[in-house]
Design brief:
Alpha-Beta Plaits; 6-stranded mixed β-sheet; 8 helices; cobalt; alpha/beta; Aminopeptidase; 2 domains; Peptidase_M20A
């Protein structure tokens, strides 16, 4: 099958997070047909090409979000129109998966890079943070670097924001609204409003590729009745952090700055950065001809610890999760060629030292 046909076949398989079994079966069957020894854990698929002391992880995700409103094409009936493939997941991230599969097929046919092993892992539940790459890492063994496939217009992303979610609760004192002053009531919504205003003014240190971070209040609830001063108001804060920000320290400082009680709701999506001198970055720059960029969206890179990694792939991140999602034929073909150059280039950079 040609590259465009592989992608069209993948997009035709519904694979909303948690329901990736059929697409995992398909990818497994293809890889086995090309001569790979395939492993499975749940809906995760992985196999290796080559052998050697250096091991490079090549990963992208098989799952998609649910289709949103507004589609004018059938999300799971992909069709090429004017060199664009429309369909759910075509851009995020089955174009990356297809490019990586074509690179794997090429290496299986022509031989792996000398002195190295490429570990291809196509994983589940990236969109929901579930049973995907984070749970698979112990099975993969030691790794030296990673490529994470997401649509970046083939620009190597060497810095990625993290996500810190805080649950804040303003505690007040209730009373009948008519007696609020005499009863010395404390309006928790008013208290929360003051803290929210303070959050809107906060600025955090800027990152050269990501810019500054700002806290966003995304949900708020409080009050029991229209004639009762509320004694509690809860709101959630979403802070997309940069690599210089320690989640625990930021939460502590915000807890000291706000009148509301601050608790960490989620902190596992850590910000990431890889230095320009790392072989995987040098190889990505050489393969793409593009300077490094930053990415505001999270990905499975967040679970790779201190492993040097680059997030890069065909397609445009601004098309992700939209109605009538698409990728162009030129982007797809360029992505497949790019991944092949990148994988060989990484081991060449390692050999140079």
């Amino acid at each position: 099958m040609k590259t465009a046909e592989l992608l069209q076949a993948l997009v035709a398989i519904p694979s909303v997070s948690g329901d990736e079994r059929f697409i995992a079966d398909t990818v497994s069957g293809w890889a086995e047909g090309w001569g790979a020894r395939v492993h499975r854990k749940g809906h995760n698929v992985w196999f290796s090409v080559g052998s050697g002391p250096r091991r490079l992880l090549v990963n992208s995700h098989l799952d998609t979000v649910k289709p949103c409103a507004g589609w004018t094409y059938a999300p799971h009936a992909p069709e090429w129109r004017e060199d664009r493939l429309y369909g759910l997941g075509s851009n995020d991230a089955k174009g990356c998966v297809t490019g990586m599969l074509v690179a794997a097929r090429t290496l299986l046919a022509e031989g792996a890079p000398q002195g190295g092993e490429v570990v291809f892992a196509f994983t589940a539940e990236e969109e929901t943070g579930g049973q995907g790459l984070g749970t698979l890492l112990p099975e993969l063994g030691p790794l030296d670097a990673a490529v994470v496939g997401e649509p970046t217009s083939l620009k190597p992303c060497t810095a990625q924001r993290g996500m810190l979610l805080l649950r804040c609760t303003a505690h007040g004192k209730s009373a009948h609204v008519a007696h609020a002053h005499k009863a010395q009531a404390v309006n928790a919504i008013h208290m929360a409003a003051g803290d929210i205003s303070k959050l809107a003014e906060l600025r955090f240190p800027s990152h050269p590729l990501l810019g500054e971070a700002r806290a966003q209040v995304t949900q708020i609830s409080g009050g029991l009745a229209r004639n009762q001063v509320p004694d509690a108001c809860e709101f959630f804060v979403d802070l997309r952090t940069t690599p210089s920000m320690d989640h625990a320290q930021v939460a502590k400082e915000l807890g000291e700055a706000l009148r509301s009680e601050v608790k960490v709701h989620s902190a596992r999506y850590l910000p990431k950065a890889t230095a320009d001198h790392q072989p995987i970055v040098r190889a990505a720059i050489a393969a793409s001809g593009e300077a490094p960029v930053g990415s505001s969206t999270t990905s499975d890179w967040a679970f790779l610890g201190e492993l040097p990694a680059v997030k890069v792939g065909p397609g445009d991140t601004l098309r992700s999760h939209l109605a009538d999602e698409y990728i162009t034929r030129a982007e797809l073909e360029a992505g497949a060629a790019f991944y092949t150059r990148l994988l060989r280039g990484y081991f060449e950079e390692v050999a140079r030292g």
